[in-house]
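Protein modeling request. Please complete all fields; requests missing the sequence field cannot be processed.
Requester role: graduate student
Desired output: 3D structure, token encoding
Chains: 1
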Amino acid sequence: MASNSSIEALKGTWDYVNGDDIGDFLKEIGVGMVGRLAAKGIKPRLVITETDGIWTLRTETTLKTMTLSFTPNVEYEDTTPDGREVKGIVRFENGKWIQKTVDKNGKESMITRWIDEKDQQQIIMETKIQKINEIFQSGRHKQAITDIQTLIEESSADNEIFKAYNCLGTYLNLMGQHNEAVEAWINALKLLEDNTGGVEKFNEGQLVEWINITIVLARTMYRQGREGSGVSHKFNSVCYTASKMSESEEEEWKKERFQAAVKYYKQVIDKIPQDASETKIKIRTELAQALFTSGNFDEAVQIYEEAFNNDGDPTWLYKAADCSWQQEKKEQAYTRLQQLITTDPTFADAYQLCATYFTEKNDITQADEYTRRYKFYSWVPKFCRHIEYNEDNVLLLETIQSDQALECIETTLTADTSKRSTEFLAAICYHHYHGAVENKAFQVLEQRGVASEGDEREFIGSLLMHLIKKHQSICTIKGAASALAGMKYDELFDILANLLPQDLNICFPMHIPNALGKLGDRRAIPLLIKMIEEPTDTQNDNSDSSDDFLLSGGTSRLIVECCLALSSFSDDEKVKEVLLNGINKEEIREACFAVLAVCTEEKKYFDELEKILTDGNTLDHMVIEYLQNNVNKSQQIENLLKLNEALLVKKQQKENVDTD
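Delivered output (660 residues):
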């Protein structure tokens, strides 16, 4: 079929090729679950014809054939495949077929058809709420909130109003307007319950929606009670403002929030289906925490003990002991703590509470011993299973925590290649000992991993993988990723691929491109090239939100680093093409010249870098670091570094003179 932007191009027979699941659209317009399941997997054939101005759309499937005839711009009546009576109208605008329908409940939907540049018919199905969601997701948050509020005021369809209230609550919550979000969600629940006659009369879909809203409502109110009225969460930022309440009013407000959270948790917990047992357990433990915080200790203890009996997690015993402690039932709390320590001898907080117990009894010897164990086990990460509590390890830890830490790594831990020593190195990295101490620990781990094989190599690799997954600092990710890349650890690639587009923080970069280059897995080539040619957007010009200022230069830094990382794959033709094209782009030209100079050793690329310097411009710090790492490859690299250093000195001298 010839390409044509006019409506005439839609005439003909069209076979289904592919498309997104339309389940969400069907659910939005009120199609029941049975109807949605029936529609899933059907691949219809469409036949579009026109005679004397009357258009016909015939939809053929293996189940049935449906026909719609209409005159453009004239309202028609129709019955949908699932039996809903609707009124509709089709308009042809700018080469597109725009079909709008509304059912007897006021639920509106729109289907748009057109022919793309590949001569394929494209179809978009959307409702008002879906369109508003797209507006919100594009960053136009205030407009979306205004639009959804207007929809609530103007719609006559209860189901649509319910969904709109739910969306409004979600928008407001993301914008940090938690009180208003809570009000919207409460309105959504009330509307749903009133229209159906109560929770017991919900169908399956309504019950799921009710459960989801009730859970998020309980969680939001619990967080408000815990943090206070002056704290709000706007997307990924936490905002603090002075409370307008008096201290007593604030405490009463928090108490009301906790009580409301408990109410909603209790409402939802018995309605969660039996086949969602994990969700039910999670919500029960959240309820227990809300009960604990609101002072309902006996109920909380009952839930914690049931949870421990179900999965054996000692955390529940500790929480139960804490409840007893808060009730001044100290002996009962101590008994539970001893049971906990028997279950898990590494549970640090149990030793701390036991130390308090013996301090109150004036048993200083026992209190000191429990304090010592607490300090030891609170430092040793859970994934380190070969560091036992004994005098030698306690003394070693004291050395690590002193100003002799670096010397300890260079001598004691480097000389000892046992699993215990390796875990001590990993624990140092886990706790993020800044500077030389952390860097040396990662260096020894990498060297040990490179030299090992079999089970020993897997042991070291698993420790480093734990550091990435359980990190307490971006620097930990950076160090562990670099060490694993040096080991050529196969499982690392997928993690780096996921982290690459997130590596946008200019102040605290993870240096994922460096790790990909160091790993040398050729699957990294398209990832790095895509990041260079299609950089990740960190800001939306239409957004009314404030993006983190730390991301402002992150994309530029990431692109330059990706160019430098391509040096590991300089034999690839596509890589060469990208680098050659890059020398014409101001943002990456230095990096591309540097990689081409180092990898080809061609004089013309060194000359271009030298020209940048002789024109009085110092090289980008990442380019300088790259050249320093390759300085042994060429005298020309050393000359460039000297020129750059001389220029830096000259600029510093000028700044000093200007200051004087």
